[in-house]
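tl;dr need the bound structure. longer version: we got a ligand (2'-monophosphoadenosine-5'-diphosphate) that a collaborator sent over and nobodys looked at where it sits. i said id run it. heres the input, straight from their email, havent touched it
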Amino acid sequence: MYRLGLIGYPIKHSLSPWIHHTFLEQENKKGTYELFEVSPQESVEKMLQALKDKGVQGCNVTVPYKEEVISLLDEVDESAVGIGAVNTIVFKNGMTFGYNTDGKGYVRSLETSFPDIFKTPQSILLIGAGGAARGIYSALLDKGCKEVSIANRTQSSAESIRKINKTRTRSKVMSLEEAENHLDAYDVVIQTTSVGMKPREEQTVLSLSTIQPGTIVSDIVYQPIETSFLKEAAKHQCHVHYGHTMLLYQAQYAFELWTGTKPEIGTMDEQLQHILEGT
Ligand code: ATR
């Protein structure tokens, strides 16, 4: 009997219970995935202790606690330390272990859409330098990518992400304007900012006028699933990647850490689309 769940605030609208209950059912495992909401007046440390006492085997962590939990855990995976955020905790033998599955989940979702993507060197541009970009940057480096540049409105945040780099990966930091003028230098462009999210879905972080046909263009905004950024990419004959699948693959990796089994995503992608679109 698995006891799993999510720590965060507010989390009432989280899709994680649906995802993990589907995984449990699919894998013929008995268990629950509950919402362990921790309001700003409450202590996340006390919540962790309470979950340990209850015999919970694993939980996810979301905003605003992904950074705070790091100092409360017994061990934290090296990539999660580099990213500076934990989104998955494993409880085992009275100990707590922290991981970050967001970036790795994103990379899995990209590879599912483009299975050969990492078989040849790719020149990658990340747009944005928030928490999501940190995770994706780190996972791309782990994957052995040779060039991952970062464009952001605030260049100091992009510089701080580049400091995670302890590999031979080439990383340029640039302004959004510079990126906009040189998009033809990239094979893959990944949009990680919140620009284009409902209710401002007409917005795009930059214009794609210099992009080459055939470039892979991805957007992690999933409300709406088809953002203005991706619509523009399609007009330029780019290959588009819808970011909502990142939700499924980061959960798949977390489920693997808790149970040792890797659930199939199968038709969950289409089901998730219907849920997000309210159809
Ligand atoms: P998350 O954790 O989801 O990645 P975040 O940490 O708030 O979210 O990061 C948001 C990202 O969106 C940042 O890169 C931010 O740019 P700044 O670092 O300059 O703030 C970017 N962003 C948000 N609104 C933006 C806008 N209107 N134009 C350009 N970039 C924007």
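gonna send this back to them w/ a short note. The radius of gyration is 19 Å.
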